[in-house]
Each structure stands twice: as structure tokens, then as C-alpha cells.
Amino acid sequence: MQQHVLSCDWGTSSFRLRLIDTSTRSCLAKVESDRGNASLFNEWKAQKVDRVPFYLQYVKQAIGELKVNSGLPVNNLPVLISGMASSSVGMKELPYADLPFSLDGSSAYAEWVDGAPVLENKILLISGAHQRDDVMRGEETQLVGLASLLDLNAGDNTLFILPGTHSKHIAISGNSISRFNTFMTGELFDIIARHSILSHAVHDAKQDEISEEERKSFYDGVKRSLGAELTGTLFSVRINQLKKYLSPEQNYFYLSGLLIGSEVKYLTNQKLILCSSSRLQRLYEWALDCVDLLNQTHVVSSEMLDNAATVGQLKIYAGMVNLNK
Fold it and tell me: What pLDDT, in 10s, does the model give residues 23-36?
């Protein structure tokens, strides 16, 4: 394997390119932006040009910035890309890998994409995984990395929780992904808090510290979700406003508790690994505490989570290189 590679984690709404030392897995320089696949897809449709070169033009721009930031030659390094770049809104749609999906990376489906004439770099585009009723792109690569970083035992039956816009609960059995569920928790929260009648009842103060009153409101939301279906609880946010039971800031956390509580209330007594950071991590920890599962939950560090996709890409890349020998 080469001493350096470029690692690209390209999501729906975000882009991150990192220069990686493969011997230490350390990041030497990085470029980040909000130029996710969704925005590029809309621009590409409007311009009616060839799709792959259009996306690679943005990758080329980011590589140029990385070269300036690092002071190192990067134009001939392999670029490993995972996430939504292999989706219907990405650079090139690739087929999904099937389950069970081995966490040694050998199950991954990936293709080399010719970067010429836009780029000198070779592009390894890594696809996602699917089951009959669900799909994911990017999380499976993260889990390949996390399995390596956490040194999971092959016999462990574990559920990984990856909160986000579309939260994933991913079951691991025999060191393979055996099934997973997608919860639209983050997207529903955004829609309700910004575009529904409840938008006037909630307010995010955007402070790092969560007050004791806001924390209690979150717990109350989780507890309310445990005994009812979600659609039967949401209007209580409006009642909190009309009756002045909660402030808009407290109500914001109450709504969050309703949604996250609805996501975690089905969980059973098993080993859990929570993969999140900052405020979202705290909210999921509190929700798991409400359902008496926090004591069996391992929380992945922010640093480990930040490196997981890159480590997964490196394992998949190493497998591809060995196959071509």
C-alpha cells in the first residue's frame, strides 16, 4: 500500500477530503465543505453535462486546496471515496453489497473510476449495502473501520447506533452486519421544528450547555413517547405552548425527546455501541438512560468516530490492491 492516500467521505450534504499517512492512519491535512452530493446533483441536472467529470471537477478543486494546505504532492495519490457519491444523486451509481456484510471489508462492492482527463488520481468509489427493505451508503464503511478500531470479538452480538438525519441501528453477528433499520429521526425533527404548526412552539437557543429545565423536558418527552405512538404525542408540543407549560427552548428538547424516545423504545437488553458526538451524543445517552440501557452502552469517542470512515476505506482499499496482485 502507498505511504499516502486521499480519503473522501462524501455525504448528502457534506464533503470531507483528508490526506492520510497509511502507516499511522493519521490525517496530515484536510478540506471540508457543505458541498454534498445533493447540491452537486441539482447543479449537474441544470447544466446537462457528463456526470462523472462534473463531480470530479469539484474533487479536483478540493485536491488543489489540500495541496496548498499540506505542501505535499497529492496529484498522483489514490482517492478513496465512500458515502453518497455512489448513489443515484452521486458521481456514479453503483450496486449495493449484500448482507451479511463482513466487517473485514471483504464484502464491500467498489469500482475504480477513471479520473482522466480531469484528474491524474485513481479513484476508488466504494458502494453501500442493502437488505430487502432498507439501504445504506457510508455507514457500512464506518463500521468496517470501527470494528478494527474497537477490536470486536467475532462472537459478539452487538447493535451499533449511528444517530443523524437518517439514524441507523446496525446489528452485528459473527463479525458481520446481519440486519439494520433506518429511522428518519433527524429529518422528521427538522421538518416539524421548521415547517409544521409546531414550529412556533419550539426554539433552539444554540447553546452548548443544556439547562436542567431543558434536560428535564427532554426526559419528559422520552417518557411520553414510551407509552404511545408518535403521531399521538406530537400535538402535546402545541399544548405545552398554548398552556405555557414549557418555554420554547424547553419545548425544543421535549420534541427531541419524543422523537428520539420513539427511536430507542424498541431496543432490548443487548450490547449497544453509540456512535455520535457533542450534543446529539448526550441526548441519545439520556434517552438510553430512560429505557435502562445506558449501563450496557459503549460510547465511541469523537476521535475514533472521526477516523472510522478512513480506517474502513483503507481496509477495503488494501483488499482491492491484494486482489489485483
Answer: 999 999 999 999 99
